[in-house]
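Justification of computing resources. Each target in the renewal requires a structure prediction run like the one illustrated here; the chain below, 150 residues long, is used simply to show the kind of job we budget for.
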Amino acid sequence: MTEVAGHTSVSEGDKGARTLTAEGKAGYSSFGAHAEGGAHVMRLINDKTEGMEMDVKVLGASAGVKAGYIDGSLAAKVNAGVHLVDADVGAFRLKLGAGVSTGAQMKDNSVEAKVAGCGVTLGQKIGVSVFDNEFSIDLKKLGRFFGIGK
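Resulting structure tokens:
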């Protein structure tokens, strides 16, 4: 797969905090293509504590398109939205804002389907989305946190 990616931050702290962040990437292979980008006022990252990985984006916007088999997922989807918070913390995902994601994806032993930001995720991940306000739980990560499975 061929991919181009980049990000920039106005300031980046030693604890994983970044302010005024812009990110983007695009790529293609013989099986599909994708392009996505976003900007956030603040982003907090902690990937050092196993089971409690954290990626929290505050006050941002994003857009993207994905079609084909890329990075272990089979997808046909487009998305655009703004958010107050977009957080992945341990086994939990929470996104508050507004968006119009549409499409389907199979990834991480789960199937996701959305129309105009409304849809569900079923499988290893269980979740619901209403106009791209999302809440989901990754059952595999939750089990690892409690010492069940590897």
